[in-house]
Amino acid sequence: MFSIITCVGNSTILLAIKNTRDLHTPSYVLLGCLAFSDLLVGLICQLLFVGVKIAEFERSFTMYCWLRMLQTRSAWTKTGVSFLIVAAVSVDRLIALHLHLRYSAFVSVSRVLQATLVIWILSVILCVVLRFWMTAEWFFIPLVIFVVVSVVLTVSTMKIFRMVRRHQRQI
């Protein structure tokens, strides 16, 4: 049920951004990238999780192992990308408020897409490749990334709040 809701909601967002020319801005493209990664979570991760549970109930241990491995790798990768893109959206909004009219000179759709591609590549490398090389210590890497991204989100949100509050007082 959640997979269907996730897929329909994110597909609607992607279609709206694709079909509306006014939404072809860096901020909306970044939100589209977030919707795309969340769509993949609904299409792949949530359905693999259902498959894992079915294999577990059916006591099909071979199928359970394969599905669990696929589900774990894809969940770490895709949810990690979603989390990093949420941080990128927050930083994008901070940059837009800070730069005002100079925003379009520094931030473009191609740069947003390049940054998103880097996020995807790093996520795949960290969550899949390093998982096979590191065994027990592997969990330390996502933990550090989570803490750093949480700090970035907190700081950027606080700065945005201060800017908006100052602007509100001036008005």
TrEMBL record:
<keyword id="KW-1003">Cell membrane</keyword>
<feature type="transmembrane region" description="Helical">
    <location>
        <begin position="139"/>
        <end position="161"/>
    </location>
</feature>
<feature type="transmembrane region" description="Helical">
    <location>
        <begin position="112"/>
        <end position="133"/>
    </location>
</feature>
<keyword id="KW-0472">Membrane</keyword>
<dbReference type="InterPro" id="IPR000276">
    <property type="entry name" value="GPCR_Rhodpsn"/>
</dbReference>
<dbReference type="InterPro" id="IPR017452">
    <property type="entry name" value="GPCR_Rhodpsn_7TM"/>
</dbReference>
<keyword id="KW-1133">Transmembrane helix</keyword>
<protein>
    <recommendedName>
        <fullName>G-protein coupled receptors family 1 profile domain-containing protein</fullName>
    </recommendedName>
</protein>
<dbReference type="Pfam" id="PF00001">
    <property type="entry name" value="7tm_1"/>
</dbReference>
<feature type="transmembrane region" description="Helical">
    <location>
        <begin position="28"/>
        <end position="55"/>
    </location>
</feature>
<feature type="domain" description="G-protein coupled receptors family 1 profile">
    <location>
        <begin position="9"/>
        <end position="171"/>
    </location>
</feature>
<feature type="transmembrane region" description="Helical">
    <location>
        <begin position="75"/>
        <end position="91"/>
    </location>
</feature>
<keyword id="KW-0812">Transmembrane</keyword>
